[in-house]
Design brief:
The complex is a heterodimer.
Chain A (H helix, E strand, L loop, with lengths): L4 E3 L2 E4 L5 E6 L6 E7 L6 E7 L2 E5 L6 E5 L5 E5 L8 E9 L2 E7 L3 E5 L1
Parallel strand pairs in A: 2-11
Antiparallel strand pairs in A: 1-3, 3-8, 4-5, 4-9, 5-6, 7-8, 9-10, 9-11
Chain B lengths: L2 E4 L3 E5 L4 E3 L1 E4 L4 E8 L5 E7 L5 E3 L5 E5 L4 E6 L8 E9 L7 E2 L3 E6 L1
Parallel strand pairs in B: 2-12
Antiparallel strand pairs in B: 1-4, 3-9, 5-6, 5-10, 7-8, 8-9, 10-11, 10-12
Classes of the chains: A mainly beta, B mainly beta.
């Protein structure tokens, strides 16, 4: 039974570029949440997708957007990258009936130069 | 809004010694509480959770945490640590109900020395 999978594992971009990160939830899960973890910090909630709609959003600018597909996988898009966007981006999946019990992927390490 | 404070950024301890990692939270509503562990270059693994019922919760690898509502705390303990327990530990809270937004503390680095 595959857990939460994220791709790519590492990514290097330059300022102003756009990036897309991908996540496949754990089997049986239909809810995907995205978090940003800066170096030495705890994860911060970006947004959550359920039934292909953004259900909740944290304190992140509109440059951060997402999408959920019918198979429950999800993408995180970040436009106009800033140096401060360098972080580990974590995807977490959960079931629709227990959204609070979340299982995390290994993350995508984004470096913005 | 909820917030989480992990009182120690680093906790060094010798192997086979007991350890306590402290977590306090602030919330105007009832909450669920979680501990996650993060090994180097990996994602977060759910260690244990408090949703309701007994205030003492245990994990399969010997950790336990106790929910103390009056002190708004959810400290993590282990009676005897191993070298393999060296990792970053995060306390998290979410408001009660099926919301799914986790608020994390800054993390505590547990360093187990031989």
């Amino acid at each position: 039974d595959a857990g939460v999978t994220q791709s790519p594992t590492h990514l290097i971009k330059t300022r102003g570029q756009q990036v897309t990160l991908r996540c496949s939830p754990k089997s049986g899960h239909d809810t995907v949440s995205w978090y940003q973890q800066a170096l030495g910090q705890g994860p911060q909630f970006i947004f959550q997708y359920y039934e292909e709609e953004e259900r909740q959003r944290g304190n992140f600018p509109d440059r951060f957007s997402g999408h959920q597909f019918p198979n429950y996988s999800s993408e995180l898009n970040v436009n106009a990258l800033l140096l401060g966007d360098s972080a580990l981006y974590l995807c977490a999946s959960s079931s629709g009936t227990h959204k609070n019990i979340q299982y995390f992927g290994a993350g995508t390490r984004l470096s913005v130069l | 809004a909820q917030s989480v404070t992990q009182l120690d950024s680093q906790v060094p301890v010798f192997e086979e010694a007991p350890v306590e990692l402290r977590c306090n939270y602030s919330s105007s509503v009832s909450v669920y509480l979680f501990w996650y562990v993060q090994y180097p270059n990996q994602g977060l693994q759910l260690l244990l959770k408090y949703l309701s019922g007994s205030t003492l919760v245990e994990s399969i690898n010997g950790f336990e945490a106790e929910f103390n509502k009056s002190q708004t705390s959810f400290h993590l303990r282990k009676p005897s640590v191993h070298i393999s327990d060296t990792a970053e530990y995060f306390c998290a809270v979410s408001r009660m109900g099926n919301t799914g937004k986790l608020i994390f503390g800054q993390g505590t680095t547990l360093q187990v020395k031989p």
